[in-house]
Design a protein that fits this description.
By secondary structure, the chain is of the alpha+beta class. Helices cover 16% and strands 33% of the residues. The chain has an eight-stranded mixed beta sheet. Strands 6-7-8-5-9-12-11-10 form an eight-stranded mixed beta sheet, covered by helices on one side. The chain binds zinc ion. Zinc ion binds next to strand 1 and strand 13.
Length: 308
């Protein structure tokens, strides 16, 4: 039983319209689901990914309107790494992100930046043979497009505290003293610890809420048993409609999820028009008339493809 890389990374935005603009217009991702937070349906949960909405390329945001800016500290993910094809792709993004992202810096094989709310991300030249997960955007040539996640990097005081969970329970492979790889049948993704800053972390806009690892549908219940067996008290298996989820906190403090690779985002929407309309899971559909007037108006995620 192996986890098939990173399924999704969920973060926090205080400014949903700007978030849509940055992840769709600037980064060239596709909005694959516009829905509500299932724990508070008066605010959005926004999903961006490749054309197909694949696990492995899915960055999602809970909207907490007006919440203060957070900062990553011990026990929090501080950086999300995306794959790109080449140094030429980094050249392209270095130019494109100027004036759109913050703190854009370049080193060999890596372009770092922060989104408009301070969420740190890096584009790294990929050395894997995993299939690239691409979204289409008229201003982003396919050879330069983001190709899905490479890694999440977290701050941990003592990475050793997580070793047993990562290696013996989740079956990640140790790469070195502070990084591990989840690699399954189709993809791999890295989990890396860095030394935390002196300041305490603060949850808020521009921070990561949790990272989800991809599970085959048939393994999901067994993962739940395994995590429960080592006393990490996972949530029950929750049906998120587009996938099923288990949540637990790993010993270094990062909130983990194990999410199934299916059924996926096309289960309730025309694959040609993912993310364009507000979609509510069946259990929330009766609230639509109350929710639509209170949700923040958002820009169309794909104005160049609008047909009417
Ligand atoms: Zn999640």
């Amino acid at each position: 039983m192996r986890l098939d890389g990173i399924h999704h990374v969920t973060c926090i935005t205080a400014d949903a319209p700007r978030n849509v603009d940055f992840y769709t217009r600037v980064l060239g991702l596709r909005m694959v689901k516009k829905t509500v937070n299932q724990d508070d349906p008066t605010v959005y949960h926004l999903f961006y990914a490749d054309e197909q909405g694949s696990p492995g390329a899915d960055i999602t945001f809970f909207e907490y309107p007006g919440v203060r800016r957070g900062r990553a500290g011990a026990g929090m993910v501080h950086t999300v790494d995306w794959r790109v094809a080449s140094e030429e792709a980094l050249d392209f993004w270095e130019a494109r992100l100027a004036g759109e992202a913050q703190r854009v810096t370049r080193s060999e094989g890596v372009l770092s930046f922060e989104d408009p709310e301070g969420l740190r991300q890096r584009l790294v030249v990929s050395h894997t043979s995993d299939a690239p997960l691409l979204a289409e955007h008229p201003e982003v040539p396919a050879e330069h497009a983001l190709q899905g996640f490479d890694a999440v990097r977290a701050y941990a005081v003592d990475p050793e505290a997580s070793r047993t969970l990562l290696e013996d329970v989740l079956e990640l492979r140790a790469v070195d003293a502070s990084s591990w790889e989840a690699r399954g049948a189709s993809r791999g993704g890295l989990y890396v610890y860095d030394e935390p800053p002196a300041d305490r972390g603060l949850s808020g806009a521009g921070t990561v809420h949790h990272v989800a690892w991809a599970s085959e549908l048939e393994d999901h219940a067994a993962w739940h048993e395994r995590v429960a067996a080592v006393g990490l008290r996972p949530s029950p298996i929750i049906d998120r409609f587009w996938f099923r989820s288990i949540y637990f906190r790993e010993p270094s403090g990062v909130l983990f999820e194990i999410a199934t690779k299916g059924p996926g985002f096309a289960v309730d929407e025309d694959p040609e028009h993912l993310g364009e309309a507000l979609v509510l899971p069946p259990a929330f559909e009766h609230l639509r008339a109350q929710l639509e007037p209170v949700l923040t108006p958002l820009p169309h995620p794909r104005p160049w493809a609008r047909t009417g």
